[in-house]
């Protein structure tokens, strides 16, 4: 079965932006008998090698491993923020070998102010080409991450165009089931009565054959299921694409269920669907 990872940022509701999220995710991954933990740059206390190596040892001592490390992007900032983002991505690429990590995750950027979609798309493409060129020298993969919140790429068409226009052996793709246009989870608090629009599933189906990782988003966790996203349908799409790579579970609560309760239910629910 697909190896399953917990996104450590899912524990933000309890621990905030700290490496306590990483330890909590590693503990739970070990308890549930799944593969490991994905992390974000803002959860790391520092990039000092000794700290990173001790953190890696702590996680691995539980019998689990790290997956990828993500870069948090300011989606409401203009394209001029990409310069700082590139510096952060390069620093993370230099740091992750101390954690035993060989891949970073990077979303696109927001179409804000007077920027056009075409202009922003071009700036994002240049961003990925630049960071992929740097990552290739370090033998690190860069996962393009579809993400909405007014950003690009956020549709299946945009993702495939971006993947086809970046020329690098370092480029890979993480499909986020909850962050295409058409997902009610990509903006606003919402309620369990919202449902995803058809274009969300069209984008998932379009992009699933290109996915190296599938990032499964959960927003509500009543009895382990998800009210916004149709996971039986999503799992069928992923299976039809013959996807056999890692699956990352991310919890962004829109209800009252804490991550420590929601995540075990989400793992059980998703595992059941994958085994059917």
Describe the structure.
With 276 residues, this protein is of the alpha/beta class. It has a single domain, classed as Divalent-metal-dependent TIM barrel enzymes (TIM Barrel), CATH 3.20.20. The protein has nine helices and ten strands. It has an eight-stranded parallel barrel, surrounded by five helices. A two-stranded antiparallel sheet has the order 5-7. The longest helix has 21 residues. The protein is globular.
Write the layout of secondary structure elements.
Layout: E1 4-7, H1 12-15, H2 20-32, E2 36-40, H3 49-60, E3 65-70, H4 82-95, E4 103-107, E5 109-110, H5 117-137, E6 141-145, E7 151-152, H6 156-165, E8 171-176, H7 198-207, E9 213-218, H8 231-240, E10 247-251, H9 259-275
Parallel strand pairs: 1-2, 1-10, 2-3, 3-4, 4-6, 6-8, 8-9, 9-10
Antiparallel strand pairs: 5-7
Helix pairs in contact: 4-5, 6-7
Output the keywords.
single chain; 276 residues; alpha/beta; TIM Barrel; eight-stranded parallel beta barrel; two-stranded antiparallel ribbon; 9 helices; 10 strands; 17% strand; globular
């Amino acid at each position: 079965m697909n190896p399953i990872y917990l996104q450590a940022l899912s524990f933000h509701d309890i621990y905030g932006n700290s490496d306590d999220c990483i330890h909590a995710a590693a503990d739970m991954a070990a308890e549930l008998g799944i593969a490991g933990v994905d992390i974000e740059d803002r959860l790391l206390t520092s990039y000092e090698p000794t700290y990173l190596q001790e953190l890696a040892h702590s996680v691995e001592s539980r019998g689990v491993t790290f997956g990828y490390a993500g870069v948090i992007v300011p989606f409401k900032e203009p394209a001029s923020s990409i310069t700082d983002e590139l510096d952060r991505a390069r620093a993370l690429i230099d740091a992750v070998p101390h954690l035993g990590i060989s891949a970073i995750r990077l979303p696109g950027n927001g179409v804000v102010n007077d920027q056009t979609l075409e202009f922003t798309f071009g700036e994002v493409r240049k961003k990925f080409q630049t960071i992929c060129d740097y990552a290739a020298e370090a033998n690190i993969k860069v996962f393009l991450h579809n993400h909405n919140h007014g950003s690009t790429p956020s549709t299946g068409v945009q993702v495939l165009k971006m993947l086809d226009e970046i020329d690098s052996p370092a480029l890979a793709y993480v499909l986020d089931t909850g962050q295409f246009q058409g997902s009610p989870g990509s903006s606003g608090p919402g309620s369990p009565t919202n449902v995803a629009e058809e274009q969300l599933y069209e984008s998932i189906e379009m992009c699933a054959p290109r996915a190296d990782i599938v990032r499964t988003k959960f927003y509500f966790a009543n009895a382990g299921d998800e009210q916004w996203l149709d996971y039986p349908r999503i799992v069928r799409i992923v299976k039809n694409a013959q996807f056999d790579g890692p699956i990352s579970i991310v919890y962004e609560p829109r209800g009252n269920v804490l991550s420590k309760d929601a995540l075990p239910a989400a793992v059980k629910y998703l595992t059941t669907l994958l085994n059917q």
